[in-house]
Design a protein that fits this description.
This protein has a single domain, classed as UDP-N-acetylmuramoyl-L-alanine:D-glutamate ligase. Helices cover about 40% and strands about 20% of the residues. The protein has ten helices and nine strands. The strands form two sheets. A six-stranded mixed sheet has the order 3-2-1-4-5-6, with helices on both faces. A three-stranded antiparallel sheet has the order 7-8-9, with helices on both faces. A hairpin with a 7-residue loop joins strand 7 and strand 8.
């Protein structure tokens, strides 16, 4: 069985973070493992509080997994503090895992800040260069590049800048622009354009986490970055189209819709 490791924060409501990543891995037939860097008191309406795990425990978690069950792919999500980010950077430098997908989680759906501003420089120098696939949305790409992104051409320029920062492949997600949803993937050799119709729903909690972990699962299963992104986009589109109206705010996507609708004889029996 292929294996994936997620390094991220938890989500008490189960729609994003570690919980979303593990569900996504399972939906792709992957054995999932986790390094928790922060415990987040969160639901579909708000992020109430965040408690960072100590850097030593973060590094110990990474070492325990890497030395016993080396993952076929790693997904990195929320790194809220400079100290936790340094622990992850040290772990990546020590173990050099293959197939690293990095989702720069900076803001929650409610606008809550999930990455300390003082950690941005370390992110650029210690985390981003490890990315096999880097998956910023437009606000995150703007912070990292210092440019304003309003058009598809801007997205292409931002991807080039992020490649120059060390990422092997960059996926700039265009969900924040008007019109059809367009994502740009640049691997330094060619540019791929992914276009899809927008799904009218407010239940999109954890979509970024789910997409990036699906990319990691596809890389672990032997697909190229472009193939991994294409498959992940099909998966997240399906999950959003059948999202769950749970909670009072932005509900979660349906990570197991395909499985549930292809028959669960093992449950029915």
């Amino acid at each position: 069985m292929k294996t994936c490791l997620t390094i991220a924060g938890s989500d008490a409501s189960g729609g994003a973070g570690i919980q979303a990543d593990l569900k996504t891995f399972a939906a792709h037939g992957i054995y999932g493992m986790s390094v928790i860097v922060a415990v987040v008191a969160e639901n579909t309406c708000e992020v109430r509080s965040v408690m960072d795990v100590s850097p030593q425990v973060i590094r110990d978690q990474i070492d325990c997994v890497m030395t016993d069950i080396p993952p076929d792919a790693v997904k990195i999500g929320m790194l809220s503090s400079q100290a936790s980010m340094q622990a992850v950077a040290d772990g990546l430098a020590a173990h050099r895992p293959k197939n690293v997908v990095i989702d720069p989680v900076m803001l929650a759906k409610d606008g809550s800040e999930l990455m300390a501003p003082e950690a941005l420089t370390l992110f650029k120098t210690g985390i981003l260069p490890h990315a096999t696939v880097f998956t910023p949305n437009i606000p995150e790409a703007e912070v990292l590049t210092g440019m304003t992104i309003r058009t598809e051409e801007d997205m292409r320029k931002a991807a080039k800048i992020l490649l120059d920062m060390g990422a092997q492949t960059v996926l700039v997600k265009g969900g924040h622009l008007e019109g059809e949803a367009i994502d740009i993937l640049d691997d330094g050799q060619s540019v791929h354009r992914f276009e899809s119709a927008r799904i009218q729903t407010k239940n999109t909690h954890g979509t970024g986490c789910t997409l990036s972990s699906a990319i990691a699962a596809n890389l672990a299963n032997g697909h190229s970055p472009a193939e991994a992104v294409q498959g992940a986009k099909a998966y997240i589109t399906d999950a959003i189209a059948h999202s769950l109206a749970l909670g009072k705010g932005n509900g979660p996507t349906h990570h197991f819709y395909r499985l549930y609708n292809e028959g669960l004889a093992w449950i029915e029996d």
